[in-house]
Fold each of these.
Amino acid sequence: MRLRIWPVLALLLLINSCKTNVPAGSKQTVDPYRSQVDSVLALMTLDEKIGQMTIFTTDWESTGPTIREGYQNDIRNGNCGALFNSHTVAFTRKLQEIAVKESRLGIPLLFGYDVIHGYKTIFPIPLGESCSWDLAAIEQSAAIAAAESAAAGLHWTFAPMVDISREPRWGRVMEGAGEDPYLGSLIARARVHGFQGDNFNGTDKILACIKHFAGYGAPIAGRDYNTVDMSMRMFRDVYLPPYEAGIAAGARTIMTSFNELDGVPSTGNKWLLNDVLRKENGFTGFVVTDYTSINEMVNHGFAADDKHAGELAANAGVDMDMQGAVFQRYLKESIAAGVVSEKTVDEAVRRILRIKFELGLFKDPFKYCNEAREKAEVFSQANLEASRAIARKSIVLLKNDNKTLPLTKGKSIALVGPLAADRENLIGAWSGAGEGDKCVSVYDAFRERAAKDGFRLTHAKGCAIQGDDTSGFSEAVSISRDADIIIAVVGESKEMSGEASSRAFITLPGVQEQMIKELVATGKPVVVVLMNGRPLTFPWIAEHAAAIVETWWTGSRGGLAIADILYGDYNPSAKLTMTFPRDIGQVPIFYSQKNTGRPYDPNTKWNSRYQDIVNSPQYPFGFGLSYTTFTYDSLKVSGKQYTFKDTIVASVKITNTGSVKGEEIVQLYVRDLVGSVTRPVKELKGFEKVMLAPGESKNVIFKLTSNDLAFHTADMTFKAEPGTFWIMAGPDSERLQKREIRLIE
Ligand code: BGC
């Protein structure tokens, strides 16, 4: 017979409830939740403990094979402590009721979901948002996503994804913040804070989950899930910092990655989970695996079978098994055999229960179940406006010959391309509960303007995103001949980037480029509007289009934001956070490369170069144009020689020399000329976004300490080394002024 002790447990917890207003991620030495957690733990059977260490997807949707059905029984029997892919108040309430009212102990469930760039109101994809370099806006977008999710019954997002990546073939670059660890770390912090806030006292914050720990963004050959193999120095200097920043910002959960690192899959990597995560970084939250990544250790050739894989994961420090049911099936046996200790299980369960306490779920398991709030918050007008605002900030102007843009009001427009009238793809990959059909397309936005402003607008699709059908070209060309200007909206479908969406060729798919060639042949100026989830290669277009605008996947109000940019109602201010290669053969290509013993010289043979292409990218990291122009006065540094205790002050005066107001992202880079190990030719160490009216100037000041010059030295200690450095500033990673300084002991 089922013991109906929920009221008993509630009472017990009430007695024990001391302080609960503890900041999220608090590292206080005396754990204020300890006695409450222990009082629950003391009531639990081993099966129930293992249940807390288990998360299943409901059958709402899934990202892989659903291993186990009948999750309702798992909840009822205390065999599952968390669920994902279940949302909306109505659905989560139903499931929570089973947990609270029908399970023996009534321990509330945790509901997780991939809210990557919005729940229902969809924001630009994270890679796009990162191009805004606007930390406040990025935090706001995460905060809105959290508020909508929390209103829809969710407690937990599997975000932010903070994997650094220099691999445009890898489809998941769309989920991250690009190639740079400095910017990536700041964005990780902003996103964690946006999702979690300072605490969970209210009802509008959800748990963040830093993923995928670790190094997932560097798969060999850009193939998703592939092996990762890098030096420890590269790992610590480049790939690890954003995870650490997210942890330092208080992220309460972390997800292991699918990949191996130096031969050890992350999900069974004790060094990673125990030493790096918990000991070095003081992480106090819980570790969840990625989808069946325990089971996959068998395929990796690291575990003999699922049971063995579960033992490796538990002993490495995994707290929760996502979807693999390995803990559920085997952990008890492994404990009986003495391969995993019950103490290990208790620790894992403590971490999970603690977070349920932090969220306030023991006090009120239905805290996030409020239909009225859900109705008011989700897809609200205010959220949609915010999505449009950040979409504008994320759009990068890559080319603008002869001031083709902004569009002159009144001119007739031919709007062509497979994505011009498309709504579905605007939400991009990993778009939560987003509904593509509710997006505003570019054509929708232009039609609205045409009706208001009275200009002539024609539209033809021209071709599909993929496939070789060119039968629509003639219509596209014919409407283009009659227009003053052609806007071609082309790119990838949302399924072409994201998980399991690696591409060996990162060109415009199908016959889209061929169509653009025909449009250019009309002699009319062609504005190419790109929608995609990764850097693409399009050298012919880069040379022949009059203007190019990289919009990424802009979200629910994408079309409106794009029209705002094209008409100059918003002056583009975004800059690339991933290098755009000229050709796939240059990949991996990134700005912070090493100099090598034979640095690039296009005029001689025996140096680090290609026979058939230059080394430089199509568009470098940090690049983006504006409708105005900015000039940089000469860069000043406060001195020539600094000790380790000094502050290096660099300043540069920026003037808006154009005729419209605009925002510039001023960037600061450093180079350590000689090290105990070689150092990159440039590393971003600061930036500032400055808004300037025409003719206005501002002195932008950067302050660096020796810590900003530190790296993992020959003996792997993190410190700066004395010597000569370049301090560089400019509008992107290529156009830089430099000053030399010395750092002395
Ligand atoms: C992805 C994760 C995601 C999980 C749950 C996996 O396939 O790699 O990023 O959070 O599925 O949906």
Amino acid sequence: MSNPKVRRRPELLPADENDFAGAVLEGLSKPSKTLPCRFFYDARGSELFEEITRLPEYYPTRTEAAIFDANAAEIVNGVPDGGVLVEFGSGSSLKTEILLRQLPRLGAYVSIDVSDSALSDATARLAARFPTLDVRPIVGDFSYPVALPPDLAGRHKTGFFPGSTIGNLTPVEAVRLLRVFRSVMSPGGRLIVGVDLKKDARKLVLAYNDAAGVTAAFNLNLLVRINREFGGTFDLDAFRHEAIYKPREGRIEMHIESLQDQTVSVSGRRIRFRAGERIHTENSYKYSIAQFQELARSADWQPRRVWTDADNLFSVHELISR
Ligand code: SAH
Ligand code: AVI
């Protein structure tokens, strides 16, 4: 039976907030070339990310899910009946189901993501599994204060930001984002954030250089997307995936490296690459618990409880608006 409360077509934010063409040309024209990681997530990119989450080397997803499984009742304690759960970068919403099972009287679940396809698939699945849940998908960039549906104003909001997606921002950007979330959640509000922890560099490097090459395909899919959407002429065989750990910055960096001197055309513009030149496509910062709590305080959130796994691979933080 279909759920009349579920909006199957996600709401759309203005297109200029998602200006892929401008960002691509700007990023590829810089002396050190970059591409923003939020553009990984077209339909194929979202599928590849889901494949990554099931890889033996990629420990974050299953470790965080196990933390939710073990502590779900405690984590949702603080979500009042009729309250709203707002998830940023919800993707497949699979881990969210662990919390939703504990929240039969939730007022609404707002899922925000740049990936239209991931949101639509997740919304359809949630409608089937949670027939009475009021799901409100919004396609958009969470870096901007998202206007929540007006009928939810005045309800208590709990923000949910799992997956260590916060690690894909620099610490300065992360503080800015946490302030944006505070404004979306105000007045009051609570935030549950998943954060990958610092650990042995070899384990980290393997998680981003899997043997099956799925992470490489995820990274190079950015070039496939540019070829398709902007008449790009990237030869996929002339570039390779690279992921390295930078201990000083405490981050994994993903790059796409040119294997030869070459010129590529994008939207009619010619872009030169030297052999060995790289496009920086993603950062994935790893924090200690104390480091992340300090970062949260700088954004005017008060850290409360923290949940981790026995091997201290991953952490889930509860933050309260100050
Ligand atoms: N929360 C899920 C998915 C994490 S992958 C999990 O924990 O498994 C990161 C998700 O964030 C993707 O679904 C991607 O489409 C989305 N995303 C990345 N940058 C975004 C942005 N700036 N605004 C909105 N969504 C974004
Ligand atoms: C979504 N994000 C937290 C993932 C990460 O681990 O930084 C994206 C990813 N990149 C490569 N593998 C997974």
